[in-house]
Amino acid sequence: YLTWKFVIHSINYINLSVNLGSKKHEKIVIENNLSNGDTKLLKLYSEDNKLVYFGEEESTPFTLLSQESTEKNIIVFPKNYKNTRCIVNCVDNSTGELFMTWLIKINPQKPIIDEINTVNCRAGIPTNFHYEFTNNLNRYCVLSFESESEDFIRIVDTKVMFNAKERKIINMTAPSTYFHNQKEILVFIYDD
Questions:
Q1: Beta carbons within 10 angstroms of residue 19's beta carbon
Q2: What is the pLDDT of residues 72-81, one digit of tens each?
């Protein structure tokens, strides 16, 4: 006297190795295997938009015809070793139904350290400090400066405009923390 309908979704699994603080571009394939001639208006969503996100084109809804497939770019950008997985969903924009899912498993690799700096501070007392940075590019750019952990190092200006070969002071703060000995914190510098 009851009828149940089950819709079973398989999860596509992508395993990626990425240097911590580096962006990696990866393609996902979206297939419309429905043979009834239906077109789908689809949109991509990321569980964590800081870890896995989309370019401008991929951020808007797109149409997929019946029996058609398309590739979309995702950008993976791990900034710590803690969050190593993210679900990406492709949703039917008209009905809100789940169309496809990917589980992105990220294996953050130790980054190449370009420079090591030392900051001396007292436990429990905030410390302001700065470092000089030179844009070695032969062009204007806006660089982002991001701390691996703002509990230990906060960047005052996270986006800084540079002319070619320009040198600027980057201001930072070590908040009042209560740890002894030393703590290693990465600061990532990247061109948006």
A1: 13
A2: 999 999 988 7
